[in-house]
């Protein structure tokens, strides 16, 4: 149905043990909404903080009055016994961590229900119309053409297999290695390759507290060479240096180029990746060093003084336009992933062997081999996990994309500033987003341009697709064309830092102005709206039905915005005077007030009525439905002592008139007969062809983890696709690779957040009984089961074009 968000299909079963918490509180802090997993408003810093359940109009009137009144495997290959790479914390052989989440420690500022109640942040998808999948994917097609205005390649290939090659692998092992031995596994793959005589394969190691083999040092950084199937130590004690510092990388590049001169140089970053906002790397031994920003990568490559044939990132999220423009100054090609990588990472054996047989192989062919071997291995080993990898011609991109991006930016900014913000917001909210759980606001730029549909957007999309020479994705990763970009929607607290980054890397200022304008309008819309930041008013009967923000006047909104701009900005969570310089540069208060007044989501319609069949429904006009960008269901179970938070789902049902029907079956999502707390992460597609991803917080073999669940049009009942580990809040801004498997014999303790009747977050608990995995992960059964005899409270969260959230009144069953 047009303008209705996409929901997963609900398969209702019978049986199960119902909902119950187990044991004592765990003291972990919230598992449903810590940093990165927030159910509060997930855009522009989290949305206005509200107190109590007053109607939006009431708040506007009070503020207006105040204003007017003047108020203000190496062990087996190289000796040492043992054949696996499992560490003591996990029983699986190939497992990685993922820093998308952060449980935190439950600080006092996150202790009340008004700050915490709910589940996960927003998901992308929008209406079924705006979220339609693209009909022109560029996956699996090698493009050998070159634009006429592309610069000449800096690396000149001799031919006839005569080229000498030096491959520099920068392997910061971090917890990927210390916890799961993933770096050791990839070294093993390299050892199996037949490199021939003309390839120097060098590996710089460090960054891990404990290497899961008996060769690589855990106390000092080292440099190795792989030759004739052996790992040879070249430099034993480089020093215990942070691998996220540009000097460490540039020194390695200089050393490698000096000691192993070659016709072709390749550089591969191995570790975590955080995209344009997070940059590269997490050094487990130097957590305070942070990641290597794009400016830091630029400095390292510049100081290294080497021109590369290709630079690759065996990390998550580094196939961004911003990173490509940085690397284009030092390399001819980029190989990187838009999305988080599955835990197996690149598969090195095959493409290195092929390269070793012909060191004059065209770089396009090398890139294709890397991508094919990676995506094929992922499809075989971890089907269901999102996979992307693309090859970018930087010699072309650097000459063609900047101007098209500038034109697109100017045109989009004009739309934002001329009462067409809604069109931009709709395109942005429904574009393919990456690492949605991390809220890094990274989207596929081709998909975004396609959805914008302007002449400038189409020209930009064509230039981008022309520079993306090869791209492959998993079957459930649609609308991923090969290059992403930062475009703020879920939070605005990083806009200033990204603008500074653009200045540091020499990116055109027109794009910076565009995102500033968009973020500013989003903040203005949130300031002026009456949305609550939690379902608290709805849950506890404090929401005044029938009153809403739809009739707030432009004058009132103008007064609100003026007051906000003269404040410390703390009314928007995540914002302060230190990260809001973008607001003063682009906000026309009067124009913004007039637009918001004419385009408000009318919350007075969020009331429950009954249809002709006696069902409880929410009825909105088509115009109002067109403003709904996200829609999800909150459910809480009353166990007689308080409320168990069961999370956020997107099981949606509409009657023949298009009205939203409240669920009355008192069921919730379960895995193998046990009800779990579930949080939807990402939605793509329409009702006929879709992919939905969610997470289930748990302890896997005692370690804080999230199971990854996938529902798609081919697997409507869903399946468990893998897992990822959590991090302590603020530990790293980067994102790590997903776990590949959950093995038989593993133990799973599901987790939930618990709230007392006085609206306060009490603690997190085990949910249900411990589960011991007794069959393959692919055979786990997902369905909806009865929650039990206790009362349930259900409320829906609506999200508007400003990414502001509103909850319906609660229905109790």
TrEMBL record:
<feature type="compositionally biased region" description="Basic residues">
    <location>
        <begin position="1"/>
        <end position="11"/>
    </location>
</feature>
<keyword id="KW-0812">Transmembrane</keyword>
<protein>
    <submittedName>
        <fullName>Peptidase C11 family</fullName>
    </submittedName>
</protein>
<feature type="region of interest" description="Disordered">
    <location>
        <begin position="1"/>
        <end position="50"/>
    </location>
</feature>
<feature type="transmembrane region" description="Helical">
    <location>
        <begin position="57"/>
        <end position="79"/>
    </location>
</feature>
<feature type="region of interest" description="Disordered">
    <location>
        <begin position="85"/>
        <end position="108"/>
    </location>
</feature>
<dbReference type="InterPro" id="IPR005077">
    <property type="entry name" value="Peptidase_C11"/>
</dbReference>
<keyword id="KW-0472">Membrane</keyword>
<keyword id="KW-1133">Transmembrane helix</keyword>
<feature type="compositionally biased region" description="Low complexity">
    <location>
        <begin position="31"/>
        <end position="42"/>
    </location>
</feature>
<dbReference type="Pfam" id="PF03415">
    <property type="entry name" value="Peptidase_C11"/>
</dbReference>
